[in-house]
Amino acid sequence: MRDQWEIKLFQVKYTTQRLNSLFNQLTRLSPAFWNVWFTFGVIAASALIIVGSFVIVFAATKILASAKHIFVPPSNKSNLMKRDLEGVGEEDQVFLPMIPGVTLPMSHIGYYLLALTICGLFHEAGHAIASYSQGVPIQSSGMFVAYLYPGAFVNIPDQQLQSLNPFKQLRIICAGVWHNLVLYAFSFISLAGGLKLFLLMLGWQSLEGYGGVSVVHIRPNSPLAPHLPSSTIIYQLDDFPLVNNIEDWNTHLFQQDGRNKVNQGFCAAKPLQDYGTSCCNINDAYPFGQSDNASISCFNPFPNTGKQSDRICLPTIPVIASTNPERCYKSSDCSSSSGTEMSCVIPYTPSVTGQVVRIYARFPSWIKTGNANNEKVFVFEGELVDIWESGNKSKPTDTKVLDFTFGFAAHFRVNIKIYFILHIGVGNVKHITSF
């Protein structure tokens, strides 16, 4: 038998002997190294079984202690909380199940399945190499997909395995978990700065310290998609510089009441034409007003007088979308040229779905905008959370000339994070079941 496919309801299994010679050749390269390598695996796995047993007992104790919340929910808390299991708060959880759409973003399903596949392959490769190193050739190896869960396996002859002395058996049994720990250590080092150091050695440029977030991907149906290509740095939202990167990004966009706050006005000249007042007829049904002219917005005087008659329709872009607009706290702060009457205004945005946000973006060097410092200012109108959900952002740590390489780094980082999480659980639980 070289290759064999087995297809059942919700399950596909592939078994092969093609990799047997590869595992054998890897073992022959340095038999002494593999003996030492898998001896370390026995030591590490023996320590892990103690730690894993403690963690599982501790988790069971926490679950039992919090069971009363399931039957008698607290009156001052809601029964369901975001990212919590019903009746069990985050502080009571030791293991958090990875549930697509609940604790795992749906956009990360591909990363999750890829991480599971690589974890399984690396785990089973450990068993196969260890088996050959102890003089027991494997019968076959393969992969399977049960429902949507991917996995891998190796077939080791039971009789030959049982004929080995106990320590050699342990080398084979512990090899998979040992490889889990090695991949866990690789993930930890990568997330702790190893990945960044590696990319810097390859010639990538670090932008840490400059502030802002990097655009990794924008949803194709987002209004921002044509304007913000991958690798663009968003360094400021309104008057809020993103000094602390993604933390400031989240703070600004997750306002408690969903409304943007402007603490300083904009100097605007009195319009030469009358735009009417229909753009100020704003409600939840018409969050941007009822004017047919999409280029104008409603503005309040600053400081706000609270009078509806003082609101005025003005062209949006000229007033607030320049890189360095003239700012003011009152109309007298505005400089008047050629006798033009100036006023101090701010956008009038009473509806949560009609907020106005200025997005300050710095484009990568290979995209020429013709503007100073290769920067532009965009005006986004809508809900604040829509900006956050429009695409993936990350700290501006890595950029290079090709969008592909930038995207690869971001996707690789997400995969590494999932490896890190998976190996905490897989390494503990799988090892305990091996014994």
Automatic annotation (TrEMBL):
Protein name, per record: Endopeptidase S2P
GO biological process: membrane protein intracellular domain proteolysis; regulation of response to endoplasmic reticulum stress
Compartments, as annotated in UniProt: Endomembrane system
Superkingdom: Eukaryota
An MF annotation (GO) of this entry: metalloendopeptidase activity
Positions of the Peptidase M50 domain: 111-231
GO annotation, cellular component aspect: cytoplasm; endomembrane system; membrane
Keywords: Membrane, Transmembrane, Transmembrane helix
Membrane topology: Multi-pass membrane protein
The keyword Cell wall biogenesis/degradation appears for this protein: no
InterPro entries: MBTPS2, Peptidase_M50
Gene transcribed to yield this protein: PARPA_02027.1 scaffold 2311
Location (main, coarse): membrane
Residue ranges crossing the lipid bilayer per the database entry: 36-60, 181-204
